[in-house]
Automatic annotation (TrEMBL):
The keyword Nuclease does not apply. Belongs to the DapA family. Gene3D superfamilies: Aldolase class I (3.20.20.70). This is Dihydrodipicolinate synthase family protein. InterPro entries: Aldolase_TIM (IPR013785), DapA-like (IPR002220).
Length: 299
């Protein structure tokens, strides 16, 4: 099924939102709604609930659905691009339908990740979820999923009309240029905070971002400067923020970003198991880098 879209709501800075939990590790939907609104008020273009930063893997189906509905109520469906990853294609399609029915105008979808899927399985997966009729942004995270959406495969997915954009998390910035040659109409989105400048210069149209959860104004300024060609501003901000941005590509990225949120006065808080607290040396490094950013006026 080909999904055609003139509007491209995934462009700009879409924050993969951290999810506030209370002391009993229950989702605090009121705080989540306030967080989504705060991000938009501070320059972000939208949010991505139910990504890995939002701990979707450990949410109940009821919680996962309500998180989407909460974000839509807070900032409007066109600003909300939920993650719809699941082990089965039918389940991912149901999540895409839920997002569509809640008012969302795009979704983000990992390839099959219950096993190391081959190309035919990947194509079938995206074909099935595209039947929901909502534009799909593919999410390439070969580090965690062990399935690599290489440029040739992404071009096939786009050529079939299954995807409109890709969140690229491989870290290989060379792929941006090959992808532009193979599928020039496919939007490239920055998928890892610590390659933002490199992918912005390579023509990225958006950023599915982690660290704006804690530092929205300075990170949005960095993105706008980078895609706008203001390299003096971008390079300075990138150097200042990179000690934090690189945590977005580490195993402990959820805990790191939540800690930075706590330090700047937001609600980061705890994570659900199996995520465990940071090691003392990790916490010290993140705390020092966050406090340095605050002292530099970047919070």
């Amino acid at each position: 099924m080909t999904v055609v879209t003139e509007n491209r709501p995934w462009r700009g800075v879409l924050v993969a939102t951290a999810l506030p939990l209370d002391d009993d590790l229950r989702v605090d939907h009121a705080k989540y709604a306030e967080h989504c609104a705060w991000l938009v008020e501070n320059g972000c273009d939208g949010v991505v609930p139910n990504g890995s930063l939002g701990e979707y893997q450990v949410l109940t189906p009821e919680e996962r659905a309500k998180v989407v509905e909460t974000a839509v109520t807070a900032i409007g469906g066109s600003r909300v691009m939920p993650g719809v990853a699941a082990y089965g294609s039918a389940e991912s399609r149901r999540w895409a339908e839920q997002a569509r029915d809640a008012g969302c105008t795009s979704v983000m979808l990992l390839p099959p990740n219950a096993y190391r899927a081959d190309e035919r399985s990947v194509l079938a997966h995206y074909e099935e979820v595209a039947k929901a009729g909502v534009p799909i942004v593919a999410y390439n995270n070969p580090i965690d999923t062990k399935v690599d959406l290489v440029p040739e495969l992404l071009a096939k997915l786009h050529g079939e009309g299954y995807i409109q954009a890709v969140k690229e998390f491989s870290g290989d910035v060379r792929r941006a240029y090959q992808l532009a040659e193979l599928a020039p109409e496919l939007d490239l989105l920055i998928g890892a905070d610590d390659v933002l400048l490199e992918l912005a210069l390579a023509g990225a149209k958006g950023w599915v971002a982690g660290y704006p959860n804690a530092l929205p104004r300075s990170t949005v300024e960095l993105y706008r400067a980078a895609v706008g060609g203001d390299l003096d501003t971008a390079k300075k901000l990138y150097a200042q923020l990179h000690p934090l941005l690189r945590w977005d590509s580490k195993v402990e990225f959820v805990q790191a970003i939540k800690l930075s949120m706590d330090i700047v006065g937001r609600h980061g808080g705890r994570c659900r198991p199996p995520r465990v607290p940071l090691l003392p040396e990790q916490e010290a490094a993140i705390r020092a880098a966050t406090e340095q950013a605050v002292a530099a006026g970047l919070a």
